[in-house]
Design goal:
Layout: E1 5-11, H1 15-26, E2 31-34, H2 53-59, H3 61-64, H4 66-75, E3 79-81, E4 84-89, E5 94-99, E6 102-113, E7 117-119, E8 132-134, H5 135-145, E9 153-158, H6 160-172, E10 176-181, H7 185-192, H8 195-200, H9 202-217, E11 222-224, E12 227-233, E13 237-244, E14 247-252, E15 256-260, E16 262-264, H10 267-271, E17 276-279, E18 284-287, E19 300-302, H11 312-329, H12 335-352, H13 356-362, H14 367-370, E20 377-379, E21 384-385, H15 386-394, H16 400-407, H17 420-431, H18 435-438, H19 452-482
Parallel strand pairs: 1-2, 1-6, 2-3, 6-19, 8-15, 9-10, 9-15, 10-11
Antiparallel strand pairs: 4-5, 5-6, 7-16, 12-13, 13-14, 17-18, 20-21
Amino acid sequence: MSANQVELVIVGAGPAGMAAATLAAQRGLSVTVLDEQAAPGGQIYRAITQTNARRLNILGPDYAAGGELARAFAASGAKHERGASVWQVTAERTVDYVQDGVVKSLQAGSIILCSGAMERPFPIPGWTLPGVLTAGAAQILLKSAEVVPSQPVVLAGCGPLLYLLGWQYLRAGVPIRAIVDTTDSADYRRALAHLGGALKGWRQLAKGLKLMRALKRAGVPFHQGATNLALEGTDALAAIRFTVNGSAQRIPTEVVLLHQGVVPNTQISWSLRAQHRWDDAQLCWVPITDTWGELDVPGIYVAGDSRGIGGAQAAAEQGRLAALEIVHRAGRIDRAARDSLAAPFTRALRETLHIRPFLDALYRPKDANRIPADEVTVCRCEEVTAGQLRGIVKLGCLGPNQAKSFGRCGMGPCQGRLCGLTVTEVIADARGVPPAEVGYYRVRPPIKPVTLGELAVAHDAALKRAAAQRDETAAEAQNSSAR
C-alpha cells in the first residue's frame, strides 16, 4: 500500500468520526481522519481536549462526556490530520484536501462522511445586521475560547440549543435580557402524538425540563409563542420586535442570538450525486443510505447528523455501525461477528432516537421564519432577496440550479450552504409544489476554497513524482537488461 493509500478515510472528527475511527483502528484497519479543527470533537465537543475545569463546569456534563470519546480516539492508533479542509471526494474514493496551504490526496478503500450538522437559516427582517449571530456560533466562541457577549443578550427562536445556551450563559455570568420562544400551544398539541417516544427517552426530556426550570428560576423573561419576528437597526442591531397573543412587543438590545434547529451538512454527499430525499419531519434534505449508512455510491458511508439529525449519542452509534460493516467487508470479521457486535450499537441507537419525533414535532420551525417576506435577504453572499427569487420564478425558474443562472443566487463563497434550504422552500412555495419536486443545488467541487496556486503546486509535485517514477522504472529496466 502506497503512502497515499489507506483502508478507511473519515471526514470529520466529531462524535461519529471519533467513534468510527476508534472501532476500525482497533480492528486492524489503517485509518486516517481528516478534520478542519486543531483538536478532535467536532462542533458538539469542540475543544474538548483543550478545555479547562471552569469551562467544563459552564458547559455541563453532556459536553464533558465527549472527553471519553476523544481519549479513546487518541489511543486507537488512527491517524488524525488536523487543519485538513476537504475540498473534493470522488466516487472512486479519492479524497482531496488542503492542509497548511498544500493540496494533498488520499486513495481510500472506504470513506465515512461525518461532516455533522449546520444551523438552519433564520431569514427574518434584519437578520444580516451586525449584532445578530446564531446561537451555534455563539456557543462555538464559548467552547473554543470562553468568549461571551459583554452586553445583555436576547435568545430568539426554538429548539433545545436555545435553552442549553441560555443555561450555559447563566453559569458563565452572561446577563440574558429575554428568551423569545416561537414554540406555541399548537406545537405542544402536535408533539403530544409522540409523547410515548418522549417518555421512552425520558432522560433527554428531563434534561430539557431542568434547563427551562433553571432559566425561569433565574428570572429570565420568557415570551412564548412569539410571531412576526423582526430585527431593527441601521448600521447595527438596535432592537427585536415580535408579537405575543396579539400584542406587539419591542426589546432594545445590541445582541440577538437566533436559532431554529440544525440540519444535515450534505454538501459532500450532494457533490457525489448520491440520492437524497426531502424529510418533511425535519424539513431538510437527507442522504439515502442503507442500514449501515452506505450511500448508493459504493464504499462511501454517512454517519452522524450529516445523515439526519439525531444528536451526539446517535452519531457515535452510527459511526460504530458504519465502521463495523467496513471492517467486515475488509475481511477482518465474518458476518456473524459483525451482527453480534452491532447488536448493542443498534439497540443504543434506537433508544437514543426514541425522543426524536417528539422534538421534531415540538420544535418545527414556523413557515414565516423559513419562507421569508419579499424584502428579506435570502442569499447573503450575492444579496438576493426573497422577492427577487419569487420574481425569477414568475419568469420560469423552476429550481435552485436555475436560480444561479437567473440571479446568481447560491453562487457566492458559501456555495449555497447558507441559503440552499431557504431557496428550495421559497421556490416550492412560489410554485405551489412540494420541496421534493424543486430539488437542491447541483453541488460541485471545490466544496471548500482552494486557490489556483495551491492546485498548481500540487500539479507540479505530481509531475515531478511521475517523472521520478519513470526514471526509476527506466533504470531498473536498464539494469535488468545489463544482467
